[in-house]
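EI: anyone free to look at a 185-residue chain?
SC: sure, send it
EI:
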Amino acid sequence: MFDAVQLTESGFSKSAIHTIASDLSGLFGVSNRNDLRDVVLQLDGNVKSINLWESDEDRLGSIVISAEDEFTIFVPDDESETRKRFTIAHELGHYFLHYIAKEDINPDLTYQADRYVDSQEMSGRVEWEANWFAAALLMPIERFRTFANDLADLTEERKIRALAKEFHVSYTAAKLHANYLEISL
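SC: here you go
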């Protein structure tokens, strides 16, 4: 077993997080068909597929960061590709918002974000920030708006399904993102 320090919230607003993630999406060429494992590899990180039911307690964190160029994202092997994609984007949110952007990181410590958290704990805000980041990384604001506007003639349900398909996210993720961006459905 190893000791790891829990990542803490960035304090950025939701809008700022969306801007950061949308910018990084363009920088890394994240597209609707891009395997995010490639982005992790560009950052010198690793993605490991694990069986959550058989894993040891040391790896219950979905991301473990030892250094800027030494981190591992753990992805459950029984999830759909769409869910794995969102999980990797979420963990990249932890990496960028809660590690890279922090000034008080101790390079001698290992950091992690737990996969399952108690919503009553302080980690709730950390998880919200990572979810906001993931949404904007996978569904960059301007591209999402443009595509949604091109679907004006569709019913709400068909529009959301088309957005989800285009950006390879769940129906719920597409709907929440559209609502946040105040896109008429």
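EI: The chain has two domains: 5-138, 140-185.
SC: 👍
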